[in-house]
Automatic annotation (TrEMBL):
InterPro entries: Alpha/beta_knot_MTases (IPR029028), tRNA_m1G_MeTrfase_C_sf (IPR023148), tRNA_m1G_MeTrfase_TrmD (IPR002649), tRNA_m1G_MTases_N (IPR029026), tRNA_MeTrfase_TRMD/TRM10 (IPR016009)
Protein name (database record): tRNA (guanine-N(1)-)-methyltransferase
An individual GO BP term: tRNA N1-guanine methylation
Pfam families: tRNA_m1G_MT
Gene Ontology CC: one annotated term: cytosol
Length: 212
């Protein structure tokens, strides 16, 4: 079983996604497990405050290092082989090959989700975490990127999808897919599915998909 350890200020943000469909079933079937660690539970501040003003000035706040490090320590525990991901807009580009590698090599994956202007950079250095980005844009927090990584890695784990041939990158698949009815009538116009897909000729279908 692969366990995702997610460090976040907003663990409830994950409930709707992890509680539905394939991810929920993977959890139920014990293919994956998700643990959450809120830095607020590890701070010394009596008001549970974990954001601080940045050195050098700036418009926003920065997540303090100590509470995030303690959360990470809790997640690591006595585990010997752990992958630690530090979500950052300027990190290494996340893709399916990387997701597959994580699924094959690691049983414990820690994902550190930032907020505000980010997390004190010393966290990444101390934990020797790898900076990962899901794309060339900036979001308000690391929760969505963490969900994307969780989903992409989970579907690479045997048994999560049920039928492993459902992994699109492992099979020939065009960008366009069709289902019944053969002729769709919408607002008086007819839209037909490609005849080749109805032919039963597997070689021609594969050729069509490759061209698409």
């Amino acid at each position: 079983m692969t366990t995702f350890h997610i460090i976040t200020l907003f663990p409830n943000a994950f409930k709707s996604y992890t509680g539905e469909s394939i991810i929920a079933r993977a959890i139920k079937n014990k293919k994956i497990k998700i643990n959450f660690y809120n830095p607020r539970d590890f701070t010394k501040d009596k008001h549970k405050r974990v954001d601080r003003k940045p050195y050098g000035g700036g418009p926003g706040m920065v997540l303090e290092a100590e509470s995030v490090l303690k959360a990470a320590e809790k997640a690591i525990g006595r585990k010997k082989k752990v992958k630690i991901i530090f979500l950052s807009p300027n990190g290494k580009q996340f893709d399916n090959l990387y997701a597959k590698k994580l699924a094959e090599i690691y049983k414990d994956i820690i994902i550190i989700s930032g907020r505000y202007e980010g997390i004190d950079a010393r966290v990444k250095k101390i934990l020797r975490a790898e900076s990962i980005s899901i794309g060339p844009y900036v979001l308000t927090g690391g929760e969505l990127p963490a969900m994307i990584i969780l989903d992409a890695v989970s579907r690479q784990i045997k048994g999560v999808l049920g039928n492993q041939s459902s992994i699109e990158e492992e099979r020939i698949a065009s960008r366009d897919v069709y289902t019944r009815p053969e002729v769709l009538i919408y607002k008086g116009k007819k839209y037909s599915a490609p005849k080749v897909l109805l032919s039963g000729h597997h070689k021609k279908i594969e050729d069509w998909r490759e061209k698409k």
